[in-house]
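User: Structure tokens for this complex, please. No commentary.
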Amino acid sequence: MTKIELTVDGAAVSDDVEPRMLLVQYLREKLGKTGTVIGCDTSNCGACTVHLDGTSVKSCNVLAVQANGRTVTTIEGLADTAEGDLHPVQEAFRECHGLQCGFCTPGMVMQAVDLLGENPNPTEEEVRLGMEGNLCRCTGYHNIVKSVLHAAEQTGVKA
Amino acid sequence: MTATQDRPAAEIGKDRRRKEDQRLITGRTRWTDNITLPGMLHLAMVRSPFAHANITSVDVEAAKSSPNVVTVLSGKDFGEELGACINAWPITPDQKTPAHSPMPADRVAFAGEIVAVVVARTSAEARDAAELVDVEYEELPAVVGIKNALKDEVLAHPDLGTNKSALWVFDSGEAGTGTDAEAAITEARANGIVIEREYRQQRLIPAFMEPRSVVVDPTGEQITMWSATQIPHILRFALAATTGVPESKIRVIAPDVGGGFGGKLQVTPEEWIAWAVARRLMKPVKYTETRSESLMAAHHGRDQVQTLTLAADKDGKVTGLKVHLDADLGSYVAIVGGGVPVLGAFMFNAIYKFPAYRFECQTVLTNTTFTDAYRGAGRPEATYAIERLMDELAAEVGVDPLEIRERNWITHEEFPFTTVAGLEYDTGNYEAATAKARASFGYDELRREQAERRERGDRVQLGIGVSTFTEMCGLAPSRVLGSLDYGAGGWESASVRLTPLGKVEVVTGASAHGQGHETAFSQIVADRLGVPFEDVEVLHGDTQVAPKGLDTYGSRSLVVGGEALVKAVDKVIDKAKVLAAHLLEANADDLDYADGKFTVRGTDQGKAIQELATATFAGHDYPEGMELTLDADATYDPVNFNYPHGTHLCAMEVDTETGAVKMRKYTCCDDIGTIINPLIVAGQVHGGLVQGIAQALWEEAVHDEAGTLVSGSFVDYLLPTSADTISFDVVHTDDPSICTTNTLGTKGVGEAGTIASTPAVVNAVVDAVRHLGVNDIQMPCTPERVWRAIHANDGDAATPADAMPHFHEGSLNQDEGAGA
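Assistant:
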């Protein structure tokens, strides 16, 4: 067991973890952050995407111990949803019907936030390339792309 | 008739944002894998690496002594309490159906079959211990591929004596729905056109994004199962029927379910094993599959060899169609496995007026993952075959593919139309859908560009593909299912309850997994009952909340479940009217109901439905003889399928030097009758399109000759990404063909995109290179296959496939080993 200390969605947390434990397993099993989900075992699907120090990572591809001393933001910490707030990207996904079953959605939203942080005014092509690492089986991507472009059009999009 | 006719349709047709989304976009979700119960144990499955083998011994000692392992069980440790995975649709009385144990004790029949289960305190510890289970196998020869299976040399299940499971035949001459197809073919050989082709429907994997997961809690009087399933009601029925636990002791919950596409329309070994382990240990257990396990052991779809003969006169008017399917069931006949290709039997004649039709389907068993429904289930395969053939016929006659369709389709004046397969299509307008799609697509302009590129010998050639599809959906009239020997009905159930404070609880037996029922059903009830959209709460997916239902598949939820809702709402209004008349001291005949309120005609007196709900709760003043409730249940059994249709047009660019293909434009005009929520409909179409396009271009489940799945991860099974796809042009006819067999006039849309798009894409790819002597490319149309097709004869000669007949090994439209 290795002791780690990190900040997750604004809260300081500390745990002893097995060195092999993945960040996504830590988030789900130790912290109950079940908004972040596991869709594959080969880091293809991106459903587990979170931000590590402000940059999107597939949390199945990061060990929990690698997050020691760092800051993690999950879909649950993106906006103060308990107060009814939504991040503009979350709002855009609802507005543009960018989700159906919603399983890929947390990862899609986190990836889109990072994408727009780097490139606030992307073209459709840039959105398609930027979201390539996140798989969706329901939407055919049409409305996901539209959602990201819609979010970009709205003001105040920040990572 | 209740006074519901003049109610304004404020909600139906509105692009309401979904009620489901708030929780899904914020991660406040209840996927099955999110459920954790006190003392819960975790399961890991030990799976056979061999496609066919006798299990000679299972040594669990090392695994049992691994840290925090509670027990390890193999097939011989279970008795009848383990139950069985059922086949609900034996397609013929003499169907060969191998016994399907969730965990066989003696012999495995596909690579990935479960031979033991490890139970431990954590999932990681269970998986660690699973590695320590030592299973000795005696490997048996495995049969892989349809053509090998048909030879009956190597048997998937030696005790059955054959790999042939069932032969299902429909003949329009014998059924009296048409004439003799063989005679039409003979005539056409002499005086007309005969097109003979063999098409391969490759095996696909549904690949829902949420891996399957199951939690079983035996604590308390009832045993509760949460499962990532499309079919909680059927699951409860099958658990009771096969494990001996009464239905009344079983509660099945499908919480948030992350996609299904038919792939979660199954009763799975994993569910049955979790059930048995929880009952044995009397502790809650959870099993969540890995993606690799999902791809290997969750059911696959499609997988047919289609042998097709189309007869036509010299003008391209079709005179007969003969279809022979060989369909791979995989290792077992899954819940509706054998029935899937039979669902296609009624659709090969599609939108056309064929006078003669014969259909045969031979199902075969192989040592591969079992197959079952995948989005469209039988109908995409049928649509692919006929729409590819119609393009071939157009090429033979030398006319535009749209022209050949027009010569054969049912015109809008001819509805209702009874087809050669015996179905009655109620409404449709193929001319209107085609005209609108054609205009939106810019058909003529793209044809001009195609001609220019051909003229100048452009390296990148343009092809235009057409698919004018229809489908039968809204599964299904129960009597029809009975006549096909299906083991259940096709009705749906709904309840409408009014709470004391005037909110509306709607209970449906449909079980959504991404479709947006909570939103669309709220719209229907809001309109019909005249209450605010926000006041309607749709409850589903829990057999204790929604005790009756037949779940969600086959584009049935709206057209069957929605109609049950309508009937329940109408009953509520009828009941409320009695109370309203009493409280208003008026004659019921003098009451009008509109906008959620009864008013006395010619006065300003009225009672809102919410007031009546409160009055019913109080019970202080109500008429003699009235039962003190406004709540109502309804069950609806459809009288017919419904028949959405549409014209899909696809433009593909093909790089003739590399074989790479690129989608340039895709337009579809679907006529689906009344649209409840255009936003949700568009989403269904987009997603359906990409699944169909993916079959045409990318996806294929491949087993090697030993029966090992070699496309067993998302590295190898090519789900499309946002970078592979384009934005689509989705339109609808201005004056849709309203369905006449349900009140709302709706037709199903969940599968339409998938059914229609595959042939549109392949037709486009073939059209781009037809002038180079190509008349078929096997799916998925990879750059290699496209390049090989182009260079098979370097564009100089017609392909050997143009000769007829050509149903032999090595013909051009098969890859080496196709179907093998």
